[in-house]
Write a structure and sequence with these properties.
The structure is a single chain. This protein has 155 residues and is an alpha+beta fold. The protein has one domain: 3-Layer(aba) Sandwich (Aminopeptidase), CATH 3.40.630. The longest helix is centred in the middle third of the chain and has 15 residues. The structure holds coenzyme A (COA). Coenzyme A binds next to strand 4, helix 3, strand 5 and helix 4.
Length: 155
């Protein structure tokens, strides 16, 4: 892929429908937590997108937990653009913003553990980050049978 046509940037409000389209497909497959359109709009300042030739093809979001701890979430790349380095670029963009904010630890809850391992994350016990359980997991239908891997990286 010619990276000069690729832009990884903060999302704008107008990107919300595209973010919704990308994440909804994976949510239907049970790979990601569903985010409603309202929820995406409310959180638009926490989103980044990858735009290729004017089309939004990937997204990810950050969530702050403490002054030192944040999460990367809602990472998704359209199927036909997978395995071209877009996911990595989105995570790197999010990490650089977190670093600027003084965050020193970032974590993810994911089914794509191999991808995150490749980009420097290591597995941790879920209990390590109890805040996440309180904020999202209580609403998850899988609560007692969570199949996601918790992973983290020091920034
Ligand atoms: C996870 C996801 C975002 C990865 O995006 P991507 O653009 O395909 O990833 P990249 O091309 O940047 O891959 C980076 C590295 O991870 C590897 N990788 C990517 N997906 C992988 C997978 N499923 N299994 C093993 N390795 C994988 C790539 O080969 C690459 O390795 P390399 O640098 O050694 O060549 C994408 O597969 C996706 O949208 N999945 C569905 C949604 C999801 O699971 N999101 C995570 C929620 S937290």
């Amino acid at each position: 892929m010619q990276h000069h046509e690729l832009d990884v940037r903060y999302a704008r409000l107008a990107d919300a429908p595209a973010i919704s389209a990308i994440t909804a497909e994976y949510a239907r497959q049970g790979i990601m937590l569903e985010r409603t359109d309202d929820n995406i709009v409310e959180n638009i300042r926490n989103f980044f997108v990858a735009e290729y030739n004017g089309e939004v093809i990937g997204c990810c979001a950050i969530a702050f937990y403490t002054l030192k701890l944040a999460e990367i979430r809602s990472l998704a790349v359209f199927n036909r653009y997978k395995k071209k380095g877009i996911g990595r670029l989105l995570v790197e963009k999010a990490e650089s913003v977190l670093r600027e904010e003084g965050v020193s630890e970032v974590f993810v809850l994911t089914l794509s553990d191999e991808f995150f391992r490749r980009i420097g994350y290591r597995e941790i016990q879920k209990e390590y980050f109890p805040q996440k359980i309180w904020r999202d997991c209580t609403h998850c239908p899988k609560l007692m049978a969570c199949d996601e891997t918790a992973m983290m990286k020091k920034l």
